[in-house]
Amino acid sequence: MKIINDFEYYKPLEIKEALNLLSQYKAKARILAGGTDLIVSLKEERINPEALIDVKGIIPLNLMELEDDKLFIGANKTFTDLLESDLIRDKFPLLWECSSKVASIGIRNRATLTGNICSAVPSLDSAPALLIYNAEVLVAASNTERTISIHDWFTGPKKSALNTDELVLGISLKIPDKHSASYQKLGRYKGEDLAQAGIGIYVDREKDYRFASCAVGPVPARMKKLEAFLHKKEINDKLLAEAAEIIPSEISPITDIRAQAEYRTHMMKVMFRRGMQIALEVLPGGKE
Amino acid sequence: MKQIKLNLNGEIRSVLVDPTETLLDVLRDKLGIKSPKCGCDRGDCGACNVLLNGRSVRSCLILAIETDGQEVVTVEGISQKGLSRVQETMINKNAFQCGFCAPGIIISATELLNNNPHPTLEEIKEALSGNLCRCTGYLPILEAVRESLEGGKNE
Ligand SMILES: Cc1cc2nc3c(=O)[nH]c(=O)nc-3n(C[C@@H](O)[C@@H](O)[C@H](O)COP(=O)(O)OP(=O)(O)OC[C@H]3O[C@@H](n4cnc5c(N)ncnc54)[C@H](O)[C@@H]3O)c2cc1C
Ligand code: FES
Ligand code: FES
To answer: Which of A71, A79, A155, B49 is the most buried (most CB within 10 A)?
Structure first.
């Protein structure tokens, strides 16, 4: 399939240059990172930009660095970069696991975490982890910089709080207490598939439990009722069974070509219990 | 049109490209490299895989212009000095039927073995999970990769 619509291609080496181009083209330019969503959209003529701004040459966007207790993940970092980072594996096991479940290696080698949240499809695998770790998105426009909480980021299916003249610089995560985690993803087969339902689980020794879903509502979201119900409680099977019954009230799945709403709801309960079991088993100093 | 220069299979090549052209199309139509195949044209099947700076990527989702100054390796490059060991075991095992998926799978397997010369079966499956094959049911392919490990090194 050819890309029919013509565009200018720019590869700026400085953030400033990219921002100037964005303001010059107004809403008519698109940032190009890994291209795994953007090139598909161009081929399918879902978008019609006058310019593509390839940001892979901008060095500060390639950084991943720890400053005090915060990890900054530059916008150009791919899922493969995250999977190769010991820091992510040790301190952010949920982000590591979510990343490992995105598509397959050939996609992960290109696809960026930032591009994933910018596309903001409801099924994005990175969202449960970012919501649970209370990520912040660093954003710049010509004359301003701002930080957007991940909790305000997703505003609708394929919609985010990012303005068209803004560039994401990266995502910042505070190092959390020691915890264990599990990400459960329902897909047809391993390797390529978008989630039909997904739940991220965080458990720590203080009995702080956190949950976030994807693909079962217009936007990915924390599951606050479930969290409140389990807060500080000792987990047992009976409690988990009761907790699972809260899940339908936290989600609003749709029926589409990939799965029925009932099935998604049912599987969310199953995956919740499965994931809790895994997370509790590996919790350091947790369940003996 | 813009002139780009890339290192293709060890050789510096210059080519005129339009920004809208994908790497897959430019490799096949302008650079005479026919091993990457167009299966789905949208990232799903892996038939168009090539190595970009040593990593497997979908050439159907990359603009040729993005590869200016980069290094691209295809199956033609891998086989330059004769077949690699994993290619040989694939032939010996009759790993493929129509062969359409083969170049992409060879790219994925080569990347795996470059990073991890002794992968487990699970690791092999993970590495090949992005490559669809409509003919074989995958078993002979997995076996061929496994067999290539016997006797040690993959070169
Ligand atoms: C075959 C296939 C399978 C997939 N499977 C999964 C899956 O299992 N799970 C999953 O979650 N996703 C999946 N995806 C989608 C996933 O690859 C993308 O969401 C990817 O993470 C997007 O990142 P990118 O770098 O490729 O972004 P691009 O495609 O380059 O860009 C995506 C969007 O983000 C914008 N953008 C990118 N960077 C910036 C920036 N710095 N500032 C502002 N805007 C920016 C772009 O303008 C564009 O609108 C799949 C994709 C394919 C093709
Ligand atoms: S043709 Fe590129 S992944 Fe199918
Ligand atoms: S051998 Fe025919 S697609 Fe794999």
So the answer is: B49
